Predict the 3D structure of the following.
Amino acid sequence: MNICSALKYGEKILSNKLIPNSHLDSEILLSKIINKDRKYLLLNSETKLKKSDFLIFDQLIKRRSIGKPIAYLTNNKFFWNSEFIVSKDTLIPRPDTELIVEVILKLTKSKNKINILDVGVGSGCILLSILNERKNFYGTGIDINQKCLNISKINASRLNLVSRLKLYKSNVDKFNLGKYDLIVSNPPYIKKFKLKYLDKDVAKFEPKLALDGGIDGLNEIRKVIKKSSELIKKNGKFVLEIGFDQKNKVINLLKKEGFYINSALKDLGKNYRCIVSTKI
Ligand code: GLN
């Protein structure tokens, strides 16, 4: 089979299962397998595919056809300025979360050497994007899932950031190491009973551990705020990603733990997604 017919074959299976962007997804998967870019596919549409490559392509197309996100099939996702390795243990980095990176870069424009803690570091996309832009910042990432730390480590080494990064497997409530100039977190904040109503791809394939915020969605946020108030330096900044309906409750929790609220920022969908506060 040649490239053109393989792409059509993939596209047809995906569109029959109502997968959006079926043509694009078919191209992405094939280019991943033969390790060429999409331009190559267009310019070489008559080139014959190796049988073994077609069989792998067929498998990936079938997994995509049941809704498995493309990022978990290619094992990567572009976020901020770099490509990140992801696995089924990490959330797929969201464009909305780039807001957090943008805010932190603005806040730290005039800072020289600071220590940043990322609670629930996952793939490392937030912390590593910042370290990559600020060559004299240091980062610490914690996560309860060792597999996420392994992925963070791989991403750090691909970006040459290993020497400025420390990773610890820890629960947020048990972590007591160091004092930080800035703390960032994108904790699980979805209400338990709402998990099943998330987009099908998210609900079925993304890690519950990274999404489930308990009955009121604030279980982990509460812990992160409480612990951050101990781990942060006076006047340190705390940047937290939150759910679309959690702004007021989270602001109250922050105030109780001695944080001054600087701002609440909206994401691309115009929902409040990020609270910036200062420890006083
Ligand atoms: N923003 C994610 C979603 O919409 C949730 C991330 C989280 O719980 N931290 O699925």
User: Anything to note?
Assistant: Residues 31 and 38 are 6 Å apart (CA to CA).
